[in-house]
Amino acid sequence: MLKKIVEHSQIKSPWLVHYDCGSCNGCDIETLACLTPLYDVERFGVLNIGNPKHADVLIVTGTVNKRNKKVLKQIYDQMPSPKIVIAIGACGLSGGIFREAYNVVGGVDKVIPVDVYVPGCPAKPEAIIDGVVEGLAKLSEIQKAGKPKKEAIAS
Amino acid sequence: MTLVYALLGVVLAPFAGILVAGFDRILTAKFQSRTGPPLLQPLYDIAKLWAKEPMIAHRFQPLCVYIYLAAAMVSVALFFAQSDLLLIFFVQAVGAIFLVIGAFLVPSPFSQAGANRELIQILTYEPLIIIVLAGIYLTTGSFNISAIYAMDKPLLINLPLLFIVFGYALTIKLRKSPFDISASHHAHQELVRGVLTEYSGRMLALIELAHLYETILILGLCSLFWTTSIWGMVVLLALTYLIEIVVDNISARMSFRWMLKSVWTTGLALSAINLIWLYSGGRF
């Protein structure tokens, strides 16, 4: 019973932390647009929390470069599990048009394990909300499988 | 019998608190032309935080959180046992200080800044609450809650200005704008989460739970201003909370200097007027 309430709550209350890995701000603006009255992600219990220690979902936009990959890793490590990572936009997925630049590492998944990829340049707010919902579906699959959450998500 | 009331209060207060907080969030969303979260969202948040992986920033932090929660629970129990108002107030104050100590233990600048601001908030509202309690004493002749219930006229008639003063303390205690300076949801770059930054997972869940207790306690104190009829009490509480939400939505977050200046000058002036009026025997 108690376990069911907790599992239900984990799906119903995802708190986001948003990290911009040097995006052009296109995806950032679309991400923050999800919080406006038009999309209102608080319907799903989503809060933009700004503190990795309180967050469940890490949203990363932009290319990862050699400077900020340490910061990205550190933010990921500061989040207590269960946690999911969502990479947003062409740059977050693969490096986008900056992929061949000398300072670019590539997509977010080169540094931390990514659960959901949201494509687009920039990704639409609808797509981002869909990405978060997909991420929560993945979390509930992990709960059903009963695997230890930390390893299951990290793989 | 008082023990039964106290236990009942401690058991039921979190549920009432969840409903109040959920209703608050829905109403806030409506004011911003959004749909808002489900009514039980605070419960979901607490249950989720409870199941997070523990990350303790300092080994004494859990102790501080437990004392904060225990103080909040004891003060609610004392309130429902119709005990001494001063006792309730001091027990609650001890808890509030331990939350600050827990934040000071960690050298993170956000936690430190938030803890400093929380201390100034406590410094701002505690004298006001003491003055309100003094006003209640001048009216009823006792600090006991049962003495208030023995009155045949509501306190609000004798203490209208002190009720406004109490409203200031209520806003600070509920962490609402313009006084949400220590742990704002919205000040990401400036504060992260202020005094709550370094608490996470289960500790944060307990803090949220303690905050629900404090909300119920402060609404309970508010209800003492109309004890003669249950409907009067309900209307007073609903109106006060509605005004709190409206003020929260229409005002920006201000600085602590502004808070100290405005709350102390208006608060102390209003309470002085009310107390002088009471002292000179101006009673209906």
Question: Percent of residues of chain B in helical segments?
Answer: over 70%
The dominant shape of chain A is: globular
Query: Which CATH class of chain A applies here?
Result: Alpha Beta
Largest interface: A-B, 26 and 35 residues
Strand elements of chain A, count: 7
- Runs of chain A in which pLDDT lies below 50 for 5 or more consecutive residues are 151-155
Strand share of the residues of chain B?
Answer: under 5%
Question: What about the largest sheet of chain B?
Answer: none
Spatial separation of the terminal alpha carbons of chain B: 34 Å
Q: Work out the helicity level of chain A.
A: 40-55%
Q: How many discrete structural domains of chain B?
A: 1
How many individual helices of chain A?
Answer: 6
> What is the succession of H and E elements of chain B?
HHHHHHHHHHHH
Run of helices and strands of chain A: HEHEEEHEHEEHH
> Segments of chain B where pLDDT lies below 50 for 5+ residues?
none
Tell me the total number of β-strands of chain B.
0
The overall pLDDT average of chain B reads 89
Q: Please identify the structural class of chain B as seen in this structure.
A: mainly alpha
**Average residue-wise pLDDT of chain A:** 85
Shape of chain B: globular
